[in-house]
């Protein structure tokens, strides 16, 4: 297939596909899906081999957010029955992190709900970062605290943070439909602040919020422009009690096409499957490992993931290997260019949790509109998007509870 051959060649050369080529990936038919996965898998293996990086979320502060991100179970007015608690103490966060690291994770993602941190919050998180780094040699720490004010990224970097996550989530054109309390430009600004402070930037998207294929391509091209080191791809978890509760738009096949498109547009970047993996990819999760080189281990911010042991078994059964703490995530050309963002930088990264809330956290869902046909052309594939509310489980263990975490 000419389209896929072209995309593989471009991916191996780190050359940007055209928008038409990216759109054509989203429009492929289910008959062509394995060919799409195989092609994007070649690009994935060129830059990341068969390694899978495991990341572990610690929700430092859950719920009670004054922002109105409509995908988020922690938003203002959410009636989702999620855990609500204020800041974990550094030793509590460190204990939660240790469980994830013992389970095989090499990065800990510290997330807090809210518009953005106060300077006192940055102090708190700095203490937490130090506690985690003191107790866990070699761990990578990513902070995800929402919109940053001047100087805060530098302070987090000084405290030992390796990375900062803040997702763009959706296209500039549709951002105001999703959130009214801050802007797309605010989000871009925070990613740029993280970059400028020498933090590895992590910024991604949420699919499944009712956006068009063009919106998805727009946000992924905007991310490539921002050049983060890691791009988390969330698939919307339509939480009851949030405005997007009825947005069950995704199929496993759609999710795979989205991940393939992201891989072709950001070939040498850590592509991470974030929230919604179990809910939307379901039994197709192993195929997604041929596209993404990174996942979250265990639970998400406000929802439960599959057992950590099942994650490890899936990786082994699919013929992949968990990336060790002594292995560098990013390709040499990126790792050598530390301090940059996506196209450069070192081996840090950052994610984008899922149903959490803050600045960018949440849990995302998965696209909608389908498309069909074969590469480039395509005819609509059948859509089976029965709500799978049975697969959405509010997190009731780990951070903020007395129960052991899933790791
Ligand atoms: S995504 Fe973040 S900022 Fe938006 S409502 Fe959720 S916690 Fe608040």
UniProtKB/TrEMBL annotation:
Listed under catalytic activity are:
(4R,5S)-dethiobiotin + (sulfur carrier)-SH + 2 reduced [2Fe-2S]-[ferredoxin] + 2 S-adenosyl-L-methionine = (sulfur carrier)-H + biotin + 2 5'-deoxyadenosine + 2 L-methionine + 2 oxidized [2Fe-2S]-[ferredoxin]
Name any one GO molecular function: iron ion binding
* PROSITE patterns found in the cross-reference section: RADICAL_SAM (PS51918)
Q: Which UniProt keywords apply?
A: 2Fe-2S, 4Fe-4S, Biotin biosynthesis, Iron, Iron-sulfur, Metal-binding, S-adenosyl-L-methionine, Transferase
Which InterPro entries does the UniProt record give? Aldolase_TIM, BATS_dom, Biotin_synth/BioAB, Elp3/MiaA/NifB-like_rSAM, rSAM, rSAM_sf
The entry marks the following residues as binding [4Fe-4S] cluster, namely: 65, 69, 72
Q: Where does [2Fe-2S] cluster bind?
A: 109, 142, 202, 272
Task: Please share the entry's free-text remark on the cofactor.
Answer: Binds 1 [4Fe-4S] cluster. The cluster is coordinated with 3 cysteines and an exchangeable S-adenosyl-L-methionine. Binds 1 [2Fe-2S] cluster. The cluster is coordinated with 3 cysteines and 1 arginine.
Q: Which CDD domains match?
A: Radical_SAM (cd01335)
Enzyme class of the recorded protein, top EC level = transferase
Describe its function. Catalyzes the conversion of dethiobiotin (DTB) to biotin by the insertion of a sulfur atom into dethiobiotin via a radical-based mechanism.
Oligomeric state and interaction partners are given as:
Homodimer.
**What is the recorded name of this protein?**
Biotin synthase
From the UniProt record, report the name of the gene that encodes this protein.
Answer: bioB
